[in-house]
């Protein structure tokens, strides 16, 4: 498998006159990302259940005790990657021109980020996520949380109060398209088509029915 694209946010270099607090924050962020990247590689190579916290800590160059200063559990690492992926999507939403169509903008951004992964990588990530009881149990709540987050970002770009009902609908429809795409993709026989292509088709089907 090719190396997975990292959804983690980039780390800006601190200036020479950065405060000691800023440097500590940077080191902590770098360590957190290093642990998460190491754990993800181990999960994908050895399986979620087959990867212990001790193995993650050793491979990350830290102690088991230090691990708990950054993550509460292995599930917490998967949530970190999932949250980082959506933060990257929201960052792109905030860069959108207010002259653009909100629904089309969200569609293009979601498809772009999904296209960063090959079908093989998506299968591996999906299998990994499904192996976590915590993630499976909070799946429904997760989509609700992301719908609210997306709505908030849309309101930052399209600021007119009278557009808020429509923007809420865009958030609902977009997350619904993502949920439907994920479910449909999981049910497809191998070889599966790229999820990004399926997501675009889902949005197009929605458009034809409106």
Overall shape: globular
Assign the CATH architecture of the domain at 74-209.
Orthogonal Bundle
CATH superfamily of the domain at 74-209: Tetracycline Repressor, domain 2
Task: Give a short account of the largest sheet.
Answer: none
How much strand content do the residues show? under 5%
- Unreliable runs: 1-18
User: DSSP helix count?
Assistant: 10
- Enter the CATH topology name of the domain at 74-209: Tetracycline Repressor, domain 2
CATH class of the domain at 74-209: Mainly Alpha
Give the structural class.
mainly alpha
N- to C-terminal distance: 40 Å
Pfam family, one: TetR_N
Protein name: TetR/AcrR family transcriptional regulator
Region (Disordered): 1-24
DNA-binding region: 52-71
What does this protein structure show overall?
The model is unreliable at 1-18 (pLDDT under 50). The chain has helices spanning 20-46, 53-60, 64-67, 74-94, 102-114, 119-130, 133-137, 139-157, 164-187, 195-209. The protein is mainly α and 210 residues long. Helices cover 70% and strands 0% of the residues.
Write a concise keyword list for the protein shown above:
Tetracycline Repressor, domain 2, single chain, 70% helix, disordered N terminus, 210 residues, mainly alpha, globular
Topology at a glance:
Layout: H1 20-46, H2 53-60, H3 64-67, H4 74-94, H5 102-114, H6 119-130, H7 133-137, H8 139-157, H9 164-187, H10 195-209
Helix pairs in contact: 1-2, 1-4, 4-5, 4-8, 5-9, 5-10, 8-9, 9-10
Short account of what is shown:
The chain has 210 residues and is mainly α. Helices cover 70% and strands 0% of the residues. The protein has a domain of 136 residues: Tetracycline Repressor, domain 2.
